[in-house]
Amino acid sequence: MATDKIAVSGFRHVFQTEAGPVQATGTIDLTIQPGEFVTLVGPSGCGKTTLLKAIAGFIQPSEGTILCDGKPIKGPGRDRGVVFQELAILPWRTVRRNIGHGLEIAGASKAERDKTVARLIDLMSLTGFEDRYPHELSGGMKQRVAVARTWAADPEIILMDEPFAAVDAMTRLTLQEELARLCAATGKTVFFITHSVEEAIFLADRVLVMTRRPGTIKAELAVPRRNAGGRDWDSFTADPEMRDIAEKVMHLVHAERV
Ligand SMILES: Nc1ncnc2c1ncn2[C@@H]1O[C@H](COP(=O)(O)OP(=O)(O)O)[C@@H](O)[C@H]1O
Ligand SMILES: [Mg+2]
After folding, report:
1. In a domain, 243, yes or no
2. Does residue 96 lie within any of the structural domains?
3. Which residues contact 206 (CB under 8 A, 6 or more apart)?
4. What residues flank ligand 1, with Cβ below 6 Å?
5. Could you tell me if residue 149 is inside a domain?
6. 3-state secondary structure (DSSP) of residue 203
7. Domain residues for 134?
């Protein structure tokens, strides 16, 4: 059997604060396979971000182990790219130079950089905005630049923490379709946190549902892929099996309301 891309076992995290210990998560076990898109939904404060930060290597777990390609995670690494809700783009760099930033740091040649950046500009529908600065872009476009920037550095794993939460509902649909297309085109392993059940199902190969804090994983549901090019909302909403999965996840999530 192939090695799990990510294997979390017996993970549990307690933050030590001045006011005393805060148990952020219950005990969590999960695996993510190479090329799989796994989404995580759960109530606010249940420990989703804590888990993601531990996988990213920003937090050392209080208990348990996290393996990446079979090796323990010791800290952040080039193999794992992170996209947070808060924008991580540089205001003084143009779209093109934001997207190419990671490649610049990695010492890629200009020709290589140009090629990757052009491909991502196309996949993220940013054509015509290459030489604009972030302040000249809408919120949705900025978030696209942030996604493209993480992708350009070509990490094998992408960790996303509610990346579209601050974007308006219409733009969000477009971003989700673009992300689905991007994933289909690049085959990355993705772990994606969201509050939105629909978003979780639309994007996922597998949805994990957490309990309220201290969160554990209470259920997981497989979401069948329908085509190789990534999902679109029209066919997704017309698909009775997807509606059925959405209803199941909705019930599981609602039972955890705090
Ligand atoms: N740095 C921290 N110090 C102390 N407590 C924290 C810290 N970060 C998160 N917490 C607490 O841990 C719990 C889980 O937080 P978090 O992982 O951010 O939840 P979620 O992302 O699911 O909303 C919350 O109760 C939160 O207040
Ligand atoms: Mg969070």
Report:
1. no
2. yes
3. 36, 37, 38, 39, 220, 221, 222, 223
4. 15, 17, 22, 24, 42, 44-50, 213
5. yes
6. helix
7. 89-154
